[in-house]
Design goal:
This protein is of the alpha+beta class. 35% of the residues lie in helices and 30% in strands. The chain has 7 helices and 15 strands. The chain has a 5-stranded mixed beta sheet with strand order 4-12-9-10-6. It has a two-stranded antiparallel sheet with strand order 1-2. A two-stranded antiparallel ribbon has the order 3-13. A hairpin with a 2-residue loop joins β1 and β2. The longest helix is centred in the C-terminal third of the chain and has 40 residues.
């Protein structure tokens, strides 16, 4: 919008924007799974989703799936976050985020972030995605990298007007949708290519030249028609 810029701790931003601490504009809560060892079979295999670090670090900004579930006993020793919560990984894989698309229990290797009414959830998530390398760089290094609520609370966050946040988030979301559609189409074309190649190599179809174009037709063996 050609607005004059100002220098801040996170670089140049428009003059009308603020820089605030994450803890000032969002509720930050740690997940929980109090039993040790964590792999005790009696807590798993129920109907309740149990999102873990890998589900977040491998997502595309939205946590749409999970690889583990809890039963009633497991749920009682964990913490459940509602759909719409931003999850962030805080152990081993540092700073990867994703917005939950369903209610889910989470272990203490994840933190849930709930923005207040002045902060757009998708805008914050897109911003946090850009911060992952810096969080990983600054994470305390012991036997395993990890961060905590105290690490995240003072993290600087740019705060435009809510209208601008919404516009920015919608622009990124539209681009993400195009990327997903293009990726799906590419996967479908790759699958089609592999199928056609297999059928050509196994003589299930044959290629004939017809003028300037090639025509693929099934062989008699593939159609079950005798010669």
């Amino acid at each position: 919008r050609n607005e004059p810029q100002k220098q801040t701790e996170i670089g140049h931003i428009p003059e009308s924007w603020e820089v605030v601490e994450l803890g000032e504009v969002a509720k930050i809560e740690r997940g929980k799974f109090s039993h040790r060892p964590r792999n005790e079979p009696r807590f798993y295999g129920g109907e309740y989703p149990f999102v873990q670090t890998g589900d977040v670090s491998n997502c595309d900004g939205y946590v749409r799936s999970y690889t583990q579930t809890l039963n009633e006993d497991g749920l009682a020793i964990s913490k459940t976050f509602p759909a719409g919560t931003i999850l962030i990984t805080i152990a081993a894989n540092i700073g990867f985020t994703g917005i939950l698309e369903f209610d889910s229990a989470c272990p203490d290797s994840l933190i849930g972030i709930t923005p207040n009414e002045n902060l757009h959830t998708e805008f914050l998530n897109y911003y946090l995605i850009t911060q992952q390398p810096e969080m990983d760089r600054l994470a305390p290094k012991g036997t395993q990298k990890n961060i905590n609520i105290q690490f995240l609370k003072p993290w600087p966050v740019p705060l435009p007007s809510f209208e601008e946040q919404t516009e920015i988030a919608e622009a990124f979301a539209a681009t993400d949708r195009k990327i997903r559609l293009t990726t799906q189409k590419r996967t479908q074309l790759q699958d089609l290519f592999r199928t056609l190649l297999h059928e050509l190599m196994t003589a299930k179809i044959r290629v004939y030249n017809s003028g300037s174009s090639a025509i693929c037709t099934p062989t008699s063996a593939a159609t079950g028609v005798g010669s």
